[in-house]
Amino acid sequence: MAAAAAAAALFFILWWMLQDQENPWVPAGLAASVVMLVAAAARGVVMRRFWARQILESGQRETHRSASASSGIRQSTPQFSQSELLHVLEKQSSEANASESLPEAHMKAFQLCGEFLDTTEKALAAPGLSSERRLTVQARQERARSLQKHHMLAWARDSARLLTHEAQQQARLHEKIETANRALVCIDTAAKKYPDIEELDRSAAAVREFMTSSRVAHWVELAQRATFKGRYRRAIDCYRDALFYLSRAESDHQIAAERITREIELLRARNATQTAVDPKSGGKRD
Hints:
The chain is an all-alpha fold.
C-alpha cells in the first residue's frame, strides 16, 4: 500500500511538472511502474528471508525438544549403546522414506542424525579409546552423515514440490509468488548445508521458471483484456511488463519474447490508426 501511494504521488507530481510536454503521462507512468516493480522485488526478498527465519527457528525448537527427550532417555537408560541408537535412527529413516510420509518426517530424521553425530563426537573425544573402537564409531558416523544428507535433500525436494503444487492451484499472482518463494527458501536451506548438489540447483531453477511464467501469464492476460476493450496503450504497457520479466529469466524465452514484440507492434499500428480516424480522442480511452 505504501508503494502504491508513493507511485501514485510520483505519477501526479511528474504529470504536473511535465504538462508542457507532449503526453506527459507516459514518463510519469513509467516512473510509477518502476517504483512498483522495485517494491515488488523488495517484498519478495523480505518474504524469502522471513520464511527462512521461520524454518530455522522451527528447526531449532524441534531440535531442542528432541535433544531434551533424548537427554531424558539417556539419563534413564544409560546402557543405551550407539549400535542401538543407530538402529533407532535407521528405523526412523525407513519410516520417513515411506511413500505416504510428509516432508516433516525427513526433517525429523535429519535432526536425529545430527543428535547421533553429536553423541559420537563426544565418544571420539573420550580418553583411552582404542583404535578398533574409534574405527567402529567413525563408520557409524559415515552412515549417519549419509542418512542426514539424504533426508535433508528429500525434505527440500518434497517441500518444494508440495509448495509449488499449492502455488499452481492459487488464483492470485501475489499468492503464487509468495508460496513459490517459500519453496525457494526450503531449497536454499538445503543448499547452504550441501552447496554442491546439482539437484538443488535444478529444483531452484524450476521454481524460478514457474514464478517467471506466472508473472508473464498475468501481464499477458491483462494485455489481452485491454486489447479487447480497445485500450491499446494500456495493452502495450502490460506487454512491456511481460517482456521485463522474460528478460530477467534464467532460461531462454526468445520465442515468447518475439511473439510479445510482434503484438506490441500490431497494437502500435492499431493505436496509430485509431488516433488518425478519431484525432479528438487523443488516446483518452487509456
